[in-house]
Amino acid sequence: MSSKPVYSRILLKLSGEALMGDQPFGIDAGVADQLAREVGEIQQLGVETGVVIGGGNLFRGLAASAKGMDRSTADYMGMLATVINSLAVQDALEKLRVPTRVVTAIEMRAVAEPFIRRRAIRHLEKGRVVIFAAGTGNPYFTTDTAAALRAMEMRADVILKGTKVDGIYSADPMIDKSAERYTTISYLQVLERGLKVMDATAISLCMDNKLPIVVYNLRHPGNLRRVVCGEAVGTTVTA
User: Rounded distance, CA 10 to CA 229, Å?
Assistant: First the structure.
């Protein structure tokens, strides 16, 4: 197994649900610790790491707006949920002595730094894990879009999307046993086939800027390191 990373700077995108583990809600401390170990491992390889975490384990803006809540209000509540998750992951990382900064698109200086692009890049250069919280700071945009946006701003080499499955399938592999897994797929195919990788805005943004996306199984220990070292894990989305 190659131990040399093929990427020097990555953006790791996690759903809020990834932090739930097998619980129906909230944050599983064991999952946060496992995630922190994986990120710590790639930091030791010298990979600069940015992280964007969703908030779906605590609050879903879209679901709330479907029930009649104002969409903007619901989305701001979702952004605050991502801040809670970011602080949990920061805590898990710092217990392992991995230096970390949470930067947030909505200003709340008591808990995190405001997002300033050049400062965030400096943190990465100094070997700190930077966790980007509160999405883009705007309603109507998902944390997938926030991940694509931050990856461009940080000039990351790749977006790594950690999920519950080991890549992108032609259909939901949990439901359809005959679903086939793609090893590579183009942005256009993802959009045309309506595959649930990231939302269309995020995919379009990556396509316009030729930023590859690797979708891999987060629950398999060591996978993050394997992906970073260029092993054929999961599915790669490119032009």
Answer: 12
One-letter amino acid at 200 equals A
Task: Tokens for 24, please give them.
Answer: 């129906």
Confirm if 231 and 5 have CB atoms less than 8 A apart: no
Nearest 5°: phi and psi at 51? -130, 135
Query: Domain map of the chain by residue range?
Result: 9-238
| 19: nearest Cα among 87, 111, 119, 96 | 87
Local structure of 222: helix, strand or coil: coil
The SS3 of residue 41 is helix
Q: Which CATH architecture has domain 9-238?
A: 3-Layer(aba) Sandwich (3.40)
Lookup result for tokens 């599983």 = 28
Distance from C-alpha of 184 to C-alpha of 150, rounded to nearest angstrom: 23
DSSP string for 38-86: HHHHHHHTT-EEEEEE--TTT--HHHHHHTT--HHHHHHHHHHHHHHHH
* Distance separating alpha carbons of residues 227 and 216, to the nearest angstrom: 8
Q: Can you give the pLDDT of all 239 residues of the chain as single tens digits?
A: 567 999 999 999 999 999 998 999 999 999 999 999 999 999 999 999 999 999 999 998 888 999 999 999 999 999 999 999 999 999 999 999 999 999 999 999 999 999 999 999 999 999 999 999 999 999 999 999 999 999 999 999 999 999 988 999 998 888 888 999 999 999 999 999 999 889 999 999 999 999 999 999 999 999 999 999 999 999 999 98
Neighbours of 25 (CB within 10 A): 8
d(CA 201, CA 214): 17
